[in-house]
Amino acid sequence: MTWLAWITFGLALVLAAVRIPAAVRGQNRLMLGLFALIAGAVLLSIQGPYLAIDAALGGFNLTNLVLRFLLFAISLLLAVRIARAFNARDAQHILLGPWGLAALGLVCVGTVVSFLLMGAVPSSVGLGAGEDEHWFEAYASLGRVYPTFTGLVLLPCLVRAVRLRGLGVLRSAAALLAAGYVLLALTNLFPLMPDEWVAAKQTMNYGSLLLLLTGLATIWMASVVTRRRSET
Fold first, then answer.
1. What CATH code is carried by the domain that includes residue 73?
2. Share of the chain above pLDDT 90, in %
């Protein structure tokens, strides 16, 4: 499924490039940074770039840990951006409040601890044989827990946006984002899936990210439509 990863990387890169003119003018630089982070995270999830970068970092999968923290940062920034787009102050308060930040802190600490306790393994984008199985499962699960948490916080406001009458583009964006977060939540079932279902797991991972990216792009389209209507 490398082709799906490259498609996701390309889309994120294009969306980042489109945002450069607005960012230069000082408008919504968060979106440019977010798309750039997503492009970087996807690149690190591809075997070739991963191995090259990890070799420069010592060849003991430190790149995988960097990727985890990139995903946590993306999850928070993305969720905050979506909460603002849909005026979900309650969701934003949870994400940036004591409980949300505590959840992020606990997941980060658990991720570092489980990474260290797995033991050294050969450099591989998906980690490899030889790691302590229990700590590996903990490490992998923690990588999915926080992104899922942010999605669950946002789902109520996204469902409300889909059901309310209003700008059709914005409702479509909410539907795409909700679908992306539901698919992301389903990745927590990976431990129950057979090991040979690698293609299905990769499709779910990149599929959820593609839905979220498309939803973000649709939000931008909605803002453009709203601005043009106000100018006429």
1. 1.20.1070
2. 49
